[in-house]
Design a protein that fits this description.
alpha/beta, 5-stranded antiparallel sheet, globular
């Protein structure tokens, strides 16, 4: 029986970082396959994950829950057949709807020896309130369909704000386990145990919930609650208009590609770390470039090694990395000004 863990999260929440930690530590002796899907033309994350020795199936044509639902099912069956892994980790696009990914996996389970082991969402605690307000239907779909919610960047906020973040999450998901402790302080085994057993590190809160809902049926893959949620936003699922029993607030819903845009380029241009840092700082100027939610890339440097970078609003990481076949960069956001982004990165 192959365990399937779906580890989702909004753009830049840190799901790739969490997956790398689990693969490197607790899962290093398990036969694991990672299937990842990105929103954007160019695959970046595969470069970051190559050195972990995990098989990666890249799908960049669209979201896992959009145009790839059919192909995804075939691919998942192929992975199960060819590799017969103990565990599959699925990392959906940051703007995918978790309910759609769960349904796609459920469709494959019927004809294979596999089970959904967990549906996890990584939530950036520092941006939780803002993202619920700005991207409600996508963001809340991930939160409300998760069996475990792992908060990131909790070490960057005070106790009061962290408690408010947990309260907001509980409004949309009363059943999920929530991990609030900084990952650096946790052993991967404890994270895996929580994901697999639904044990909340905030045990008192979970006990209250369990007592209140002790009569609730168990066995549902997402913590025992119904996949159908009422939203203030109108919504359709993100898979080409096929309805998956969502309740529509009004007739028009949003597909990921209507709300989010992705701008990606391959490049041979050589950069310095200082140049990359200056570029990333300028991405904060929303009026100039649109709302940039995430930027990442790997580019050649004047000296070895290459430059790898990650950006989410207010946070920049620039580090050394292995040389790749060609430089790649990708910017994801809402209402992006591609001409100005091109000028910023390439001077033209």
């Amino acid at each position: 029986m192959t365990k399937i863990d779906i580890i989702s999260g909004f753009l830049g929440a840190g799901k790739t970082t969490l997956i790398k930690k689990l693969l490197k530590e607790e899962l290093k002796n398990e036969k694991t396959v990672l299937i990842e899907n990105e929103f954007g033309e160019i695959g970046i994350d595969s470069g970051f994950l190559k050195d972990s020795g995990i098989e990666i199936k890249e799908m960049n044509q669209g979201c896992i829950c959009c145009s790839l639902v059919g192909d995804f099912g075939t691919s998942l069956k192929e992975v199960l057949k060819v590799y017969n892994p103990e565990r599959i980790i699925i990392e959906p696009s940051g703007v995918g709807k978790l309910s759609d990914v769960i349904k796609a996996v459920e469709g494959v389970m019927k004809s294979t020896d596999s089970k959904i082991n967990s549906s996890v969402v990584v939530v950036d605690a520092t941006r939780c309130k803002m993202y619920i307000k700005n991207f409600g239907e996508f963001y809340l779909n991930q939160i409300s369909n998760a069996s475990t919610i792992v908060l990131s960047r909790t070490d960057k906020m005070d106790q009061e704000k962290l408690e408010k973040c947990v309260e907001m999450i509980r409004e949309y998901n009363q059943f999920a386990s929530i991990i609030t402790t900084s990952w650096d302080k946790l052993e991967s085994k404890l994270i895996i145990d929580t994901i697999e057993n639904g044990r909340d590190l905030n045990s008192q809160l979970l006990q209250e919930v369990e007592e209140e809902y002790s009569h609730h049926e168990e066995g549902c893959c997402c913590g025992g609650h119904d996949h159908d949620h009422h939203y203030n936003h109108g919504e359709t699922c993100g898979c080409g208009g096929h309805d998956h029993d969502h309740h529509h607030g009004h007739n028009h819903g949003h597909h990921a590609d209507e709300v989010f845009t992705s701008w990606g380029k391959e490049t041979t241009k050589i950069y310095t770390k200082e140049q990359i840092k200056e570029i990333l700082l300028k991405l904060e100027e929303e009026k100039e470039f649109g709302m940039v939610l995430r930027a990442k890339g790997m580019v050649p440097s004047k000296e070895e090694p290459w430059i790898y970078f990650d950006y989410v609003p207010g946070e920049i990481e620039v580090r050394d990395g292995k040389a790749d076949t060609i430089g790649k960069l990708c910017v994801i956001g809402s209402k992006l000004n591609e001409d100005k982004l091109s000028k910023l990165f390439f001077g033209k």
